[in-house]
Write a structure and sequence with these properties.
Elements: H1 2-41, H2 49-58, H3 66-75, H4 77-90, H5 95-107, H6 111-120, H7 125-148
């Protein structure tokens, strides 16, 4: 009988913990979404293209891939995929470029958002970012080399 009496207290603690976690997630995600929308509206994503062109070319990515790539890196796979789908129609991205983007984003998406969220829970940014970025760049570069040969 004691466990049944403790059940409402346990449920209440779980609910409180869940609501606090939701608030912390919202405090990370909402500013990122807002910042992304502002950056897109002011054309900030087009500025780094000349400097990133050689690196992205090695990954088999052209100028049309920069915006979905940045969206996927900052905001996650779903948001990046949504932008990828809409831009691939608008800018007529080649099938191989869409595949390269998908491989990169599946391997290494939401590096800013996920890292910030896991750091809230006590995770290490370096331990999370390092392997993901290295694997994403390696796989995408391998795919680009394979496609060229």
């Amino acid at each position: 009988m004691e466990t049944l009496a403790a059940l409402p207290a346990t449920l209440w603690q779980g609910l409180q913990g869940g609501l606090i976690l939701c608030l912390e997630i919202a405090l990370v995600v909402v500013p990122l979404l807002f910042g992304y929308e502002l950056a897109a509206a002011y054309g900030i994503f087009e500025r780094p293209w000349p400097r990133l062109k050689p690196l992205l070319a090695r990954l088999g990515l052209g100028p049309g891939a920069l915006m979905p790539l940045l969206a996927g890196l900052f905001l996650g796979l779903v948001y990046g995929a949504g932008i990828l789908l809409s831009l691939s129609d608008e800018q007529d991205l080649p099938r191989q470029e869409r595949l390269a983007l998908a491989v990169f984003l599946v391997t290494c998406h939401a590096v800013v958002e996920d890292t910030a969220l896991f750091m809230l829970l006590g995770g290490s940014a370096l331990a999370m970012l390092g392997p993901r970025v290295i694997l994403a760049v390696g796989l995408t570069a391998w795919l680009a080399r394979r496609r060229r040969s």
